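Pinned message: reference record for HTH tetR-type domain-containing protein
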Amino acid sequence: MTGTEHATAAAATDPRSERSAARLREAVLRLASTRPASSISVTALVGAAGVSRKTFYNHAATPAQLLARTLTAELDEARDRAEQELTMSSADLERAVRHRLRAILSAVDARRQIYLQGGGGLSPELYQLLSDHFAAAVEQSIVALHRTPPRLRGFDDEPHRGAALAMYSSFVAHAYAGAIQSWLQHPETPEVDFLLDLIVSALPVWMLSRGAAQH
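Predicted structure (C-alpha cells):
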C-alpha cells in the first residue's frame, strides 16, 4: 500500500476527513463536466472544494485519480443496488442482466458530460475505467457459476481455462465499453434503452442463458 493509500484508509474513519472527501468528489465531478480530467489542476480542485492541498493529497495523488475513483464508486453502487433488486442467481438470467446493465448505463448517462470530455467520446482513461469495471463483473459472474462460457476442445487444461476466463471477460467488457463509446458519439440517439437493447441483442448466448455454453 502506498503512502497515499495509507492516508486515504486512515481518513475514511475520520468524519471531518469524510466531509472533505465529499467536497472533493463533488468538486472534481463539477470540474470534469467542463474539461478533461487531465487538465484539472490540484490548485483548481482544492479551490473549488474549499480544502487545502495537504487535505487533497490525503485522498488522492491526482485529480484524474480522484475522478476515476469517484466514477468507479458510482458504477459499483449502481451495480450493487441492481443486484439487491434482482440477483444474478435469478432464474431469468436475461432479465437480471438487463436490470443490472440498465442501472450501470443510467449511471453513465447521468454523467454524460463527464464521459464526453474525451473530445466527443470516451478518453482512454475513462474507456479503460469502464472496460475494467465490466471485465471484473463478467469474470465474477463466471467464477460464481452464473454463466458458463464455452470450453474449447483441446485447450481444457488449467492454464488455458485461466487464460480463457480473462479473455472471455475482456472480450465482453471491451464490447460494452466500445458500444458506450459509440453511443456517446451519437447524441441523436440518447435513449438508455436503445443502447441497452442493442447490447443485449449482440451478446453471446452464454451471457444470457444458463447452460448455453457449447462444449
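Pinned by admin. Summary line: The chain has a mean pLDDT of 91.
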